[in-house]
Amino acid sequence: MVEIIRGVIKKQGSSSLLDNAFQDMDYNGMLFLGYPLIGLGTAIDALFISEEFGVIIFDLVEGTDFSDRIEIQDELFNVLQANLLKNKSLTNRRNLLVDIDVISFAPGCSGSNDSCLYDKGDVKPYLEKKERWKHPEIFESLVSVIQVATKIKKAEIKTFTEDNSRGAKIAKVNAAIATLDREQAKAVLETSEGLQRIRGLAGSGKTIVLAMKVAYLHSIYPEWKIGVTYHTRALKQQFESLITKFTIEQISQEPTENLKILQTWGSSNSPGIYYDYCKSHGLEYYDFRSAKSKCGFDDPFDFACSTALEATVEPNPQFDIILIDEAQDVPESFIKLCHNFVKDNKRLVWAYDELQQLGTPQNLDIEEIFGKGTELRNNAGKPKEDIILYKCYRNSRPTLVTAHALGFGIYRNEGPVQMFSNETLWSDVGYEVTRGELELGKDVRLERTSDSSPLFLEKIDKDSEIIKCELFSGFDEQVKWVANDIENNLKNEELSCNDIIVIYSDARKVQEKMGPLRKMLLEKGIKSHIAGVNTSPDAFFQNDSITFTSIFRAKGNEAAFIYIVDSQFCYSGYNLQKKRNILFTAITRSKGWVRICGYGEEMEGLIEEYEKIREKDFTLDFKYPTKEELALMETVYRDMTPQEQKSVETSKESLNLILSSLKEGTIKKEDIPENIRKSLLDHLS
């Protein structure tokens, strides 16, 4: 079966016919329509690679002019051959082991030239007559090299003195995932004429894919006005760095002013999509404070965007395409605003994680945003409009299973705190059923496969080293241990400061509680900073400095080694779903190792859950809640405002006082009016 990847196609007629010709062919290969040539900012019309034939370049001819094709064919051959010869895996001494053929495809012409095919019906006979490639054993190497357009080039090579150090191990992991998988490659190269959604778990590569897609489109269409937007300000540093790096790789220069990287909200000091929209439409702009004063407890950004949309008389589009990262973090009104801001073709791409918060998935209402009857379709012969990235590359299997088990509370003695109401979502996040039935109220065991969680880190380190829970006698012992362990990672394990993030569990107390740990590090000669406090709101990492943060700024960022401090905060109490989500998100920031640190009885309870995860060999083995149990979870463990918590505490104190008085006999049950007693029993039954 030939897999077809549809990149930027400028010769629509002949591309469509060639696409049709390959639809039902039974070869093991890939057809790239619009294959980008790195560094040249241009593309080969079509490229077919297969185990049977090696490489075939198709020179597509639109219209009836067939002149100068031999010269064009020679140029295409020379460029690709030069690229392939750079790779030792494809050569034997100075000889290229890959067959390269070039042929023109000119459906608008007629003739009998051996170097040209004139009809889609000519393609199959041409292939059937071709001599078979003698080295199909290097096909996977060929695929890796050909997909260089979707390959993350290695950073400056760092040497390690110890082969077994954590620094050396994470370098091996990074090298192993440098080439994107086929679904990621499609997401980079395929862009629909209209709407496109890219879905995937945290760690599936959405941000990398979006950054590469931007660079690819900018290289092919330098005249396009491209807008790229992100919501979390701490992501600016990472996003700008990735897009600039990939653009330089594509066209050997930095992005031009036609490519704008903008935060979603923006201001007069820092342009953003919403700010620019208001400015170009002559509308009143609301910053966070002014929007908050108008909307009360509602989402201020939703209020600002909705107000701008209502005030828009005639859209004034400024962009040829807008791409949105982390779209699950923005209101639907913002996505609608972006749709207004693109030109007639309405090209809009958004990367989206429906399951970033555990429990009920966040779904965008496509019809509500874009109009009744709007659907995302994956039609044969056209770029995909709805792409799903199934593999999780950031987190190892033990890390991700632990994150899900603790996040849902699957092994709590009291039962889960939250759960997917749609049980089939487990397959969407890469689990398969290995025992029981995935149905409400039934026993089930779920496991991650090596396909959905590649074994890169597990092959070179033990499960027991990848993720650990650390119990301490108190706060002081905890921070002292973390300081010493960070020092060890820097001095002996060959990690750098940017390989480490320290996440404090309670966002309200990061500055207060992390002061002693930061002081200990400074005494050891190790610098640190609190992201967004000691730095610009747009910065997260700093050179030669350890990043301290809460989960809200950590979201979207990643590091080789994650420390979670005072993890016991996430074990019990009010807002337990929110607290467990903090733990889940913190753990999934790691592309290497995690240390879940804490003290006290609540930390012991968390460790008890973790030990059950290990006993089950990092599988999820549990009874799926019933419909009634799911509803009860949403009530018992729901998020509550401080006022609601205070009201509950006051009510509990009043009830305890009544119970105590009844036990002591200072009041009799008859002293409580019958209607109150009856009403209380009705509410509690």
From TrEMBL:
<dbReference type="GO" id="GO:0000725">
    <property type="term" value="P:recombinational repair"/>
</dbReference>
<dbReference type="GO" id="GO:0005524">
    <property type="term" value="F:ATP binding"/>
</dbReference>
<keyword id="KW-0378">Hydrolase</keyword>
<protein>
    <recommendedName>
        <fullName>DNA 3'-5' helicase II</fullName>
    </recommendedName>
</protein>
<dbReference type="InterPro" id="IPR027417">
    <property type="entry name" value="P-loop_NTPase"/>
</dbReference>
<dbReference type="InterPro" id="IPR000212">
    <property type="entry name" value="DNA_helicase_UvrD/REP"/>
</dbReference>
<keyword id="KW-0547">Nucleotide-binding</keyword>
<dbReference type="GO" id="GO:0003677">
    <property type="term" value="F:DNA binding"/>
</dbReference>
<feature type="domain" description="UvrD-like helicase C-terminal">
    <location>
        <begin position="547"/>
        <end position="596"/>
    </location>
</feature>
<dbReference type="GO" id="GO:0033202">
    <property type="term" value="C:DNA helicase complex"/>
</dbReference>
<dbReference type="GO" id="GO:0005829">
    <property type="term" value="C:cytosol"/>
</dbReference>
<keyword id="KW-0347">Helicase</keyword>
<keyword id="KW-0067">ATP-binding</keyword>
<dbReference type="InterPro" id="IPR027785">
    <property type="entry name" value="UvrD-like_helicase_C"/>
</dbReference>
<dbReference type="GO" id="GO:0043138">
    <property type="term" value="F:3'-5' DNA helicase activity"/>
</dbReference>
<dbReference type="Pfam" id="PF13538">
    <property type="entry name" value="UvrD_C_2"/>
</dbReference>
